[in-house]
Amino acid sequence: KNVVGTMETLNQEDHLRNPILLQELLNKLPTSQKLRWLEYISRKTVQQPKLIEFSAWLDHRASIVSQIEMPKLSDTVTNVTRDKQKHNRRDVTLTTNNSRTTNPKCACCGNEFHHLSNCSKFKSLSVDDRWHLVTSQRICFSCLIPNHTLRTCKSIKICGKNQCTKPHHILLHKDNDNNHNRSNQGYQHEVNYHRLTSNNVLLKIIPITINTNGNYVHTHALLDDASTVTLIDQDLADELHMDGPQRTLTIQWTNNQVRQQDDSRIVSFSIIGQQKNKKYQLRRVWTMKEMSLPTQSINSSEMMERFTYLGNGVLSMTNAKPKVLIGQDNWPLLVNKRIISGPWNGPALSKTLLGWVLHGNVSQTANTFSNKHTTSHICHMSSEDKDDLDVLHDLVKQQWQIDSSGVYKLEKAMSKEDMVAQSIMDRTMTRSGGRIETGLLWKDENVVLPESKKNAMRRLICTERKMDKNEEYGRRYCQKFDELVQKKYIRKLNNSEVCGDQFKVWYLPHFGIINPNKPDKLRIVFDASAKSNSVSLNDFLLTGPDKYNSLFNILINFRICRYAFTADIKEMFLQVRVKKDDCSAQRVLFREMDRTREPDVYEIEVVFFGSTCGPCLAQEAKNKNAQEFKLTHPDAVPDIIEKHYMDDYLGGADTIEAAHKLIADVIYIHSKAGFQICNWIANDIKIIDHIDSQLVADGMKTLRNENDKNIERVLGIFWNPIDDTFEFKTKFHKIEKDLLENIRRPTKREILKIVMSVFDPLGFITNILIQGKMLIQDVWRSQLGWDDEITDNLADKWNIWIEELKKMYNFKIPRQYFTFDRSSSHLQLHIFCDASERCYASVAYLRIQYGNEVQVSFVNAKARVSPLKPMSIPRLELQGALMGARLGNYLMKNLNLNISSTTYWTDSKTVLHWIRSEAGRFKVFVAQRLGEIQELTCVTDWKYVRSSDNVADEATKYVINSSVSADSRWICGPKFLLLNSQEWPREIEHDLKIDSDNLEMKRLEYTCINFSAQDLIPDIPNPERFSKWTRLLRATAYIIRVRNILRAKVFIRNEITVEELYEAEIILYRKVQMESFLEEYKMLQQGQIIKKTSRLFSLSCTFREEDKLMRLDGRLNNSSSLNFDTKHPIILDPKHRITKLIIQHYHENAYHFGQEIVLNKLRCKFWILRMRQAVKNVFHNCQQCSNRRANPMIPIMGQLPSCRIFSLV
């Protein structure tokens, strides 16, 4: 910088542009800084940088470095001698010895090299001795790998033990007395609470009007950007008669202060801001007792006088006490749309959706509000309930999965994470002591878990408060926890085990839940999703591959056998043991009802429900145990692997004896892994009598009493084992009474929630449910808000649909498809497809014929609403046919029945015409779907049926009085299926007449080619338009194929054959000869002698009749090792375009090297006149070869500047 200043002072501007001086300065920089200088210049787009720019860049770099670390100044400047510099320099020499290889050794024990964290001797040392070892051996403090230091380590990790933030390994951590005072950040919402004692700060308090149940109340709200939940004063909620479910609300402040309210309610209401015409809905607002939010007063005239920039937007308020706290869960109300601000110590006026609000600093002399206020920020809210949107999302997702079973391929390829998880299970899962033992599915097997004990302790305090308030709850909680210990699912640790050095230590919070359907049963949940230091235990674990069987597949096969039975595995997850090394990651704290002592530490020694890898490990353990009995129990093993959904088992047998044996085998195999399968239910009392009474479900005693009210839930479906029927129980206890009684109209959110909550995996009432989905689509088209009530027209449709749904309460359908002996029966599958403007559907039936008797049974039905974008009826009919094809293909593959044939019925003539035609003839939309239909089905399986006989029509038409009963056509199928096949509907020619406008044919382009039988050379492409020999050859072969097709009138769909390529090759050679040597060609063909003026006179030419080509006749005829082309090469003209393409082809095959190689290859088949010169021309014209041969040009030196040639003498 000084040099530049000196040159500018002396007016030596030319020296500032001296490139040699700039280069000398650059040479003094390290390589990394040179690269940064080049990057800086490239962004500036400067052709010739000056010394001024280099000085500015260097000064900028120095300022950046000085911000990272200020230079250390000393009173005395010490000159570092050259000897000291030489002493401090490290010289590293790498030598190799081919005769001997030295294996690295462990720096601690001296044995074969292993990581220090795995060295038992290193672990046995004290922490001080460990530090001494790593320091003396120059081992990195962070990763414990030798040959580098912490400064150069590329994998620095924070210790994390007891929230230590230092970059050393956990084995080098030193505990001190101050660790327990460190702050914890382990809650799910990382915000804080603070209390300010001030008189010069305004909060965001704004007047609002609450509207609920027709009541209006004026109050104030505090807009709190640091709160994660919205609160309302409970007294105000009681005054407005706000009702909602009671839940436990837990709030944490700073210094670990926790407040818990067990009777908090979740309510919803609307608020109105300063703009009276706009209303905003607040959902999931928690009631809170004694909110004690600060009061605030504002004198608007005084404010506008003191701060003139505020204008007229300030509202006056006197002792305004907020009754509502609006948090980030309603963030649109907090966002500032506009801000009017002044100086830093002055207030700001912000415009929100609720209106203008004044906040910020004001003068202390302006006595405008109270001198104390408290700002509350919610840190953690404990609740097991999901948000309404989450519930809706789960319902829609579940409905989509159910509807997609059988018509969409939901299987996913195994990801890399799933492969890693599977390898861990294969490596760690073993049998130990009559149980299956496994390791947890860690994402990183060398993971070091952060501190989590403090978070678990805080959550334990919350649980204990609830136990102290409810003695019965506390007694049941302690009893359940003691039960887990007695069953050896949990083990209490001693002090030495707690204090041992372990890397994978995690403390799990736990809480109790009671199922409303089972109020006498309390279950302790271990929360593996609880976050500590912004991470949870589940964040470190893999989910693992999906091991669950298809629920749809299990249910459709449950209806096959004569005798059916179900059971479930008791405490399935808890029967799988966890490897001892991983148990430390499953620690819990508990001290029963004694609050005066420190809690005991326990370890969960089994897989528990709540860990992300738990379901995968439990299913894998079940399947692996069953695989070991494949040879001894061949019938039971497939049932265990394929007919279990989670812990539920659905089996069946055709005889009582087979059922006895199968049940006994299943119980025996499960017992070998510690699984107890119990709660057995069957449709015959003889089956139950052969099962241990302790394993039989309590409700099975009603079978003996013939109580017809004994109904069991089987994977969500109600099954009556006495009648052996499926029943549809429409329970409306979750729907508000005023909705059912049509007192008020539902909102868009409520309609979606009710429709999507109906569980019908087998499609028994698809024709009813699709009406509800069409209603959802109508509501969506109306563009209503989620919480807006529907219109009159939609309300009428809603009332009709809900009444139809109520009629399904006593609906029954036989569980078993048929009562005939299926080994002697003839089984057929019939799929009916239909579509309308609103939806498309398909329904499947089984037709069973035993002698002269015929039965038809409902199997499954699927339906979809039409897209919002209008689509033609033929296209929708095609969508229905595609869905039917997928459904039929799925049932044929997964239904364990010997089905002889499948028939697909549709009333669309256009779809039948499409299916029976070539898919490539139609537009893309039609062609793609036709391709899949033709791949999944046989064209001859598709038949026409009149709309009046098409059962799927009942699902696609909006019928006011849709009836679903055991004897309805929807369940029993069309009547004609009970007749002989000769009496089924037959296609009549005039019935299949279709409108040509609906065919959606692809526009075809035709090219006419004239062929003559006597022509030796047909019309072939112009060689000048081709740059490659192979392209010209294949194009000619396709033209020859077209000629053969037109002559033989046979369509060929295969790829180009070798014979066609050879024929094209001969035609191209013949074209060269006839265009270059036409006179010679005719003379040789007629057996005459070539004229002396011909270019071919000096050659011994001959004409071969087989391929009609001129060839060179040599002296190699007696050779048996040479082929015919080598002995009689083809004569070509070097100037012809085809010849040049051939030479170029050989040149490229030689990878652009070696003219002699190309010459030798060509001479094996061709005799090209002046061949060497022709090959040289191709080499010379090849762009790639020209680029390779090119030499870089040396730029011409520029003129010297005047200052360089100016005489200073």
From TrEMBL:
GO terms for biological process: DNA biosynthetic process. Transmembrane segments: none annotated. SUPFAM superfamilies: DNA/RNA polymerases (SSF56672). Residues 559-677 form the Reverse transcriptase domain. It holds the Pfam family Peptidase_A17. Residues 1136-1190 form the Integrase zinc-binding domain. InterPro entries: DNA/RNA_pol_sf (IPR043502), Integrase_H2C2 (IPR041588), Retrotrans_Pao (IPR008042), Rev_trsase/Diguanyl_cyclase (IPR043128), RT_dom (IPR000477). This is Uncharacterized protein. It comes from Photinus pyralis (Common eastern firefly).
